[in-house]
Amino acid sequence: MPPKILRLNGAALVGGDPAQAATAPKVTPLHRVAPEAKVKGLALKLRGIAKAYGERQVLKDIALDIAPGEFVAIVGRSGCGKSTLLRLLAQLEQAGAGTVTADGGDTLAQHREDIRIMFQDARLLPWKTVLDNIALGLDDRPRDASGVAPPRGFGRLGAALQRPGKDARDRAREALAQVGLADRAGDWPAVLSGGQRQRVALARALVHAPRLLLLDEPLGALDALTRIEMHRLIESLWQRHGFTALLVTHDVAEAVAVADRVLLIEDQQVALDQRIDLQRPRVHGSPAFARYEGEILGRVLQRPALHPPAAEPLPLSSLRFAI
User: Fold this and answer.
1) pLDDT, tens digit, for every residue of 38-65?
2) 245-to-234, 258, 259, 261, 288 alpha-carbon distances in Å
């Protein structure tokens, strides 16, 4: 039988911290989105989603509804299928069974251009400057009155290797300003810190004004202070632009800090769906925050690991002091 979905109903007791709000990153609106407007987030409906690799079942009978503009975090033990679910939504892999629809009935393939994914590795091209990395793939061809661009030719190595035009570079500069790196446009990726590279990767996703942003542990390799800064940056950009966001993370505190809902994947299914009723910006040390974190972490740790690490024998050299 599938595990029962638990819903932990905690009340929101603590509001935002004015000092924390004052230090939140300042953002600049994207060229394609007016300052007072928001991108309409993509609504998602998953039914009966299953995925297996050979004999190993990773996901089964996943049923999930995500509202437009909702921020959802997915947690679980390593190998539980978190990243697999994200890759299915990014259309990098195909589900073995089930359906995913968007905006009330469209296929996900109809919204391919509305979806962007950000990985743990920034995946910047080392031979392109920061600005050109962000502008990569932007379509700046002239359009007619209906917004349709003429067909692109396939000469040489194709459009992906062409230098972006002025409009694309202007949009890339605006996206770079949003993440606080306007002065690094001409730098090479090799001279950036890990946190700065992830900011560039975030700008590269945002420059396309996505309706669905998928985040596959993008902050996992960053130090604690940089992670908190990135939490605030991602949250502020999400609030401004209104896209739907799905974050995969091993860090329960990170999930509570940014998400509207936290999902736990266990036994190939959604075993916990916890709504986080805390005002934003959230205070990491508050009692309400700690309660949510403790409840979710406790639920994750209820089930022992499927493959506990085997005990390693002590090397003989370590026994010399006991002889």
Assistant:
1) 568 999 999 999 999 999 999 999 999 9
2) 10, 10, 9, 11, 23
